[in-house]
Amino acid sequence: MEILKVLFNYFIFPGFLFTAVVGMFLTWIERKVSARVQMRVGPPWYQSYADFLKLLIKETIIPEGTSRFLFYLGPLLGLISMSILAVMLFTMNFSPQTSFAGDLIVMVYLLALPPIGVIIGGSASRNPFASIGASREMTQYFAYELPFLIVIAGIVLKSGGTIKFGEIIELQKSNGPFLYSISGIIFGMVMLLVMQAKLGFVPFDIPEAEQEIMAGPYIEYSGVALGVYKISKGMMLFLLPVFIISLVWGGITDWWAILKFLLIIVLIILIKNTNPRLRIDQTLKFFWIFLGILSIIGLVLAVNRL
Amino acid sequence: MGKFKLWGLKKSPWVFHVAAASCNNCDIEILDVLTPRWDVERFGIVLVGSPRHADVLLVTGVLNRKTLPRVLRVYEETPKPCLVIGVGTCTCHCHMFEKSYNVVGPYDRHLPVDVYIPGCPPKPEAIIMGVVKALQRLG
């Protein structure tokens, strides 16, 4: 029975199936809101599901002379890590006592896996555009990881040095969310911009820049493999706002969480629709100098309990 | 192919634009279709940058000795099942370049073309109607 329950958790709720279905719905919301911003009608609600169904019947072409294993590992890494992250996030939000020491660090590692999957897949494609995309993805990953880790350190400091995800949520439940302080606002802001880059949305869609390098690392992918990339992107769009809410905005403890979630999603989409794409060197400067300094200021404020 | 899966193909045709040495008029009209005024994303049509992602190839221009191997290569790179739609009168019968030394003849001598959209250039409405007819051919 115990094994069945674990399997159910990983594959159906809240793991793979639930997150994928909700994530694909969120991709539709993203496309619809973008369409409304551009004064268009936009796609119907079943669009992402139709896209995925179509990709299932398409032929999957593997480029000549590549490693079949690495070519399929790229998309799978993102999918697997996002499923595990979904299980961890939701079980620890609903029952914080299941938290174990160091699970926050495990989550940071799981969030690092999808870009690594993109880099592996792009490098295995044997295509110059894919190589450029993979190298840009790598640079961008190093760019946004610095402020992200400083913010994680700041949150650990604010919660009195615990690296248990459940304890951070419990602490916010009793003392009020971290967001309602100066350092908390800074952390939330930096986290939101880092999430924008992690999702690969404009202004940080440099790796897949459609107008200059077509689709970057995804250029050689077709059929199911491309569909798996799309699904893991949707799952990220679902899980990253949940991650932000859990760390700085009090966790998913009541129905208000849904409203907070929608607010963050709309904010991400509006940032996406009102900004042009940056160059890769501008991104690096933005994350390391501007957001790096901002997050260090937040860290100093957090030490002084502001 | 099951009915359910066919529905997916009909509801999300991703388009790759193959400009085989056209005079650019048809290309501009194709881009017009994607603007907010006609907004084909409501039918799930998206312009993609790589033939690997495409379900529909929109070919424009007169096929000549230089472009023929490229167009054939793009067709072979596209995962099947895929549709080919010829946009503009050039794709139907080589237009006024018919007698040129460099022209290798209309498209259906080399590629399985599903639908031709005549016009020089065709109106955006005509292009949308052509895509709809191509999708109806699927069943």
Essential attributes:
heterodimer; A: 306 residues; mainly alpha; 0% strand; B: 139 residues; Rossmann fold; five-stranded parallel beta sheet; 5 strands; 15% strand; globular
How many β-strands of chain A, per DSSP?
A: 0
Helix content of chain A: over 70%
Mean pLDDT of chain B: 85
Inertia-based shape of chain A: globular
Largest sheet of chain B: 5 strands, parallel
What percentage of residues of chain B falls in helices of 4 or more residues? 25-40%
Straight-line N-to-C gap of chain B: 10 Å
Structural class of chain B: alpha/beta
Poorly predicted runs of chain B: none
Rg of chain B, alpha carbons: 14 Å
Poorly predicted regions of chain A: none
Strand order of the largest sheet of chain B: 2-1-3-4-5
Strand content of chain A: under 5%
Structural class of chain A: mainly alpha
CATH topology of chain B: Rossmann fold
CATH class of chain B: Alpha Beta
The whole-angstrom Rg of chain A is 19 Å
Q: Label the CATH architecture of chain B.
A: 3-Layer(aba) Sandwich
Explain what this protein looks like in three dimensions:
The complex is a heterodimer of chains A (306) and B (139). Chain A has one domain (2-303). Helix content of chain A is 73%, strand content 0%. Chain A contains twelve helices and no strands. Chain A has helices at residues 2-11, 16-37, 47-57, 68-94, 103-123, 128-158, 165-175, 182-199, 210-213, 223-248, 256-273, 280-303. By secondary structure, chain B is an alpha/beta fold. Chain B has one domain (11-137): 3-Layer(aba) Sandwich (Rossmann fold), CATH 3.40.50.12280. Chain B has helices at residues 3-11, 25-33, 67-77, 89-93, 124-137, and strands at 14-19, 46-47, 56-60, 83-87, 115-117. In chain B, helix 2 (25-33) packs across helix 5 (124-137). Chain B is globular and about 50 Å long. The mean pLDDT of chain B is 85. The A-B interface holds A 31, 35, 38-44, 46-47, 49-54, 56-61, 210, 214-215, 218-223, 226 and B 1, 4-5, 7-9, 11-12, 36, 39, 41-42, 44, 48-50, 52-53, 55, 77, 79-81.
